[in-house]
Fold this sequence. Notes:
By secondary structure, this protein is of the alpha/beta class. It has eleven helices and 28 strands. The protein has helices at about 15-20, 45-50, 60-65, 125-135, 150-160, 180-195, 300-315, 345-350, 400-410, 415-420, 435-450, and strands at about 1-10, 30, 35-40, 55-60, 70, 75-80, 85, 90-100, 105, 120, 140-145, 165-170, 195-200, 205-210, 215-220, 225, 235-240, 245, 260, 260-265, 275-280, 285, 295, 325-330, 335-340, 355-360, 370-380, 385-395.
Amino acid sequence: MEKYDIAVIGGGPAGVTLAKxxxxxxxxxxxxxxxxxxxxxxLPYAIEGLIENDKTFKSDSLVTDAxxxxxxxxxxxxxxxxxxxxxxxxxxxxxxxxxxxxxAVPFIPPIPGSTLxxxxxxxxxxxxxxxxxxxxxxxxxxxxxxxxxxxxxLAQAFSYRKVAVDLVDMGDSVLPNLVDADMSGVLxxxxxxxxxxxxxxxxxxxxxxxxxxxxxVLDSGKTIDFESYEGENCTGIVIFAAGxxxxxxxxxxxxxxxxRDGIVINDRMETNLKDIYAVGDCAQFNSGxxxxxxxxxxxTNAVPMAKILGFNLNGQNRxxxxxxxxxxxxxxxxxIGGTGLSAVAAEAxxxxxxxxxxxxxxxxxxxxGAKKKRMKLVADKATHRIIxxxxxxxxxxxxxxxxxxxxxxxxxxxxDLSALSxxxxxxxxxxxxxxxxxxxxxxxxxxxxx
Length: 450
């Protein structure tokens, strides 16, 4: 039986990162069943036609050039006592250390009709190929369930491809995990301008059809209907983009401790079993702000988690600070970013908060092409700490969101941000007299008398 120093189950962002860190110094196997590792956040733009499908596939050389062996197979059993893996073809390997990086899978609610043809999710190569085939063969209408980043990006892609789109979400605003309702109003307007029909405060309770989905029933009693299904010409599809659940079926009923949001780990990615680790979307960990369990299913969390583990297995002693969940997306002409806790999430976590707002232009107002940029800061009244930030702009926001994530991570206060030293240039910022972060911090200080 072949034996490896390190076996990694999963070839996503965490698996590739681990290969780069450990592949040259260990006999290492990266195991995945898929033909390709995917750049998941690029999938909507392949549907839109901005990039070719194969541009969303990561090269296997990212693993093999790093010195790791790539095994394309499905693990069907783990023997934690003997430290062996059994594959679908009944072949086996042994390991000294095992890293579980199996990711997450889309959640499709078990409602009536959820198994009808034409109902699916959007995560895998097969999903991408199926949806692209439907669009290319005359798809007339799509219903996307979930107004988070992936749902909105996919809805826009359908619209750009001349497919009529209905977007359904239980929340009262779009992107509820990224920005609060008082920041997202312009985004709803922008989606409607792009011919996307919104159904907010709505829940899909049933899907109807004989063989293929033909209508969607909302909790209000309203239905969204497709044209009659004839032969192989699908007129409508339903895509669920309403959340992810950890892929932990492999360790179900095993000695590995799991909880609602994944495999339980400590800040070194260690599970309750010696030499067994978990990283990425399959692992449950805490908010870096509240210290409580928080979902953090983002590649930008999976990669740092994998780095912490990789460095530690190379002899270092690093710890992971927790999730801050800085993220961004694009809606029409608007770039949106959020980090930390939204006002809604902060209050739900028990914080007494105060919010500050600011609005400037992306360039000096006298410069051609100057566009609006708006910010919201969320602060804890008791400690004055910044615990959340949101930006809606007509130019990219990721750099600013990263700065604010760092400020939150370092427990910066409103007073700290109001004293921020900043740069200014006519093509790149507002006038030197004001800075969007400083203005929002000063708004809080004015409200509170700090």
